[in-house]
Amino acid sequence: MFSEQELKRYNRQMLMEGWNQERLKRSTVFIAGAGGLGSPVSIYLAVAGVGHIRICDFDAPDWTNLNRQILHNHNRIGINKALSAKQTLEELNPDISVTAITDKITAENVDDFVNDADIIVDCMDNFPTRYLLNEAAIRKGIPLVFGSIWGMEGRLSFIKPPETPCLKCIYPEAPPQEIFPVVGATPGVIGSLQALEVIKYLAGIGENFKGKLMVWDGTRMEFKNYKAYKDPECPACGNL
């Protein structure tokens, strides 16, 4: 199933007890967003050997993105981010398949975009789209890995109703949209943790971060975990 080149590329991770590289190769991941979080998520999933990455972004990089969106560089200003991501990821690992989706996620197309993915990674910067992804994950019965950033702070959760609360349970109302500060290392930290959650789930190793919300304070280098509670009247998952 693996070429000699692949066996060499994945050798070190395949040394881990219980690791299932074949499952990774057979898997499809839908990544919503090719920006600050989507960059480390997609890069680490690509080099780990996830067989099919489906990455979606309707925007194009500009100069203000380049401090953190490491999928792109100054030569790709104005090019669609999903297309730029596809180029970067296929250069990093030519043994995987990357599909670029260049349209905006809406209620009408989200299920088609996610399609047959095994898991969704929420790398968005706005809650209306996050809620659409949350609802799609519930309808399809697949997990969603949530990540968010602000300045030197980040949050993460592994969501899989009815086993866990959904995103709407954790955040019943969307915070106001704003242009927020961020240093590039922050999405590097949170995006890497999101990628690790995906890899653990797909490779069948370790335990996922279920039913909790992780809050990371980079200014103090503190990780705090909080229990997440299911809302029995949640409009998204309350009937599960």
Describe this structure in words.
The chain is of the alpha/beta class. It has one domain: NAD(P)-binding Rossmann-like Domain (Rossmann fold). It is 34% helix and 19% strand. The protein is built from nine helices and eight strands. It has an eight-stranded mixed β-sheet, with helices on both faces. The longest helix has 19 residues, at 185-203.
Index terms:
Rossmann fold, 240 residues, 19% strand, alpha/beta, single chain, 9 helices, eight-stranded mixed sheet, globular
SSE layout and pairing:
Layout: H1 4-9, H2 11-14, H3 21-26, E1 28-32, H4 38-48, E2 52-56, H5 81-92, E3 97-101, H6 110-114, E4 119-122, H7 127-140, E5 144-150, E6 153-159, H8 167-170, H9 185-203, E7 212-217, E8 222-227
Parallel strand pairs: 1-2, 1-4, 2-3, 4-5
Antiparallel strand pairs: 5-6, 6-7, 7-8
Helix pairs in contact: 4-5, 4-9
* Shape estimate: globular
Radius of gyration from the alpha-carbon trace, in angstroms: 17 Å
Please tell me the overall pLDDT.
97
Relevant CATH superfamily: NAD(P)-binding Rossmann-like Domain
Category from helices, strands and their pairing? alpha/beta
CATH architecture: 3-Layer(aba) Sandwich
Percentage beta strand = 15-25%
Look at the structure and give the CATH class: Alpha Beta
Number of strands: 8
Amount of helix? 25-40%
Q: Give me the side-by-side strand order of the main sheet.
A: 3-2-1-4-5-6-7-8
How many structural domains in the coordinates? 1
DSSP helix count? Answer: 9
Unreliably modeled segments: none
The name CATH uses for the topology is: Rossmann fold
Through-space gap between termini: 38 Å
